[in-house]
Amino acid sequence: MKKPASSMIVICIAVLFAGLAFGAGNHADRVKGPFTSGPEVTKACLQCHEKQAKDFMKTVHWTWETTQDVPGKGKAAIGKKGSINNFCISIASNWPRCTSCHAGYGWKDATFNFSEASNVDCLICHDTTGKYKKEQKSAGNPDPAVNLLEAAQNVGKPNRANCGACHFFGGGGDHIKHGDLDSSMTNPKRTYDVHMGIDGVNMACQGCHQTQNHDIPGQAMSVSVGEGQRVECGGCHGAAPHKEDRLNKHTATVACQTCHIPTFAKDEATKMWWDWSKAGDKERKPKEDENDMEDYAAIKGEFKWAKNVVPTYGWYNGKSERYLFGEKIDPKKIVYITKPIGSIKDKNSRIYPFKVMGGKQPHDSKNNYLVTPNTFGGYWKHMDWQKAITDGMAASGLAYSGSYGFVETKMFWRINHMVVPKDQALKCTDCHGPKGRLNWKELGYKGDPRKVGARKAK
Fold it and tell me: Of 32, 241, 261, 326, whose CB has the highest number of CB atoms within 10 Å?
């Protein structure tokens, strides 16, 4: 017999707090030090936790790559390791900066040893002092100011700050990439996120991302096409979580997030546009927009930011399109690096909310594919695109014709966090009113489906 949604919620929360209580504690009597490097700490951890390290080394948090069936393109290796995005573009040739968010030590170039357990950074996930941090430009190594012995003696289950050390700061800083994940989620109010609010349930990330053998479920569209373990609201709340039957009927075609996350980037503005083609103007002075965010940096180009953003809505069946490195493009058209797959005619599709990141980035204008420029230690120093692209492509192993241009790109990022309390969720008129936020015709309806004759797809 299926458990009611309320019972499932209680079970999920019980599992969460049981997990937080187990395994945490002071290790002062077990870990003695002294330590002068991260790998030295890990070697001490391995004396008791060798299995845990080996389990972790099988996960995408370590490999930054997995093989998935890319729709229409067959099996391919995808993930942060070899993907392109429209933020900092690629980690190839930029390793020391990008891998400051890798849960490992010393990934400074393509020769990094993924089979060496002492390269695993246990502290980035398990430190409980709140003082541990990585040096931003040192290939994932700890900041020299960190007291490694203190951190190693005070480990426990991960908290939001541990996860947020990387996931809140993607794209080179706070509140840049995701839109629904930033430092405001470390200790948010219930009105920011009903699950993680410190004046509410106060769940840790693993309350939803329930982990086994260090394998953390979840599939970000930026690095996945939808295979593997997923985290969905129905896992705790069931398929019919509402008291009203008419609302439960919506769950067949409308994702929970669509109604329960009315806006994202509530506290801090998120980046919505990054135009690399405008970089290089040393005379241009940056201006602050209405969100107090600068619109320009000579080494990076032009930006647009937004706060309290109403998502873009689209059909999504759990799979997404993905641009693959070296894939041909038409530079006269927008290149979609990621895009949800689904339609009104697809019974497995539901309407989901997305952040759509846009911008312009370099491409090989003769070979017609996106390129991977060397920015860190490269363009950001010499500001020479020709040299930056030549060096970056050499590191990536893909031919460069010597000619480049800039092409407009877009990425869809699914919105899952910043869930509001139920009394702040969208009301019927927010979608079905005269100024409703959904574009029914773009979604495939003749008009508002609440009206007679408007339900039929195009």
Answer: 261
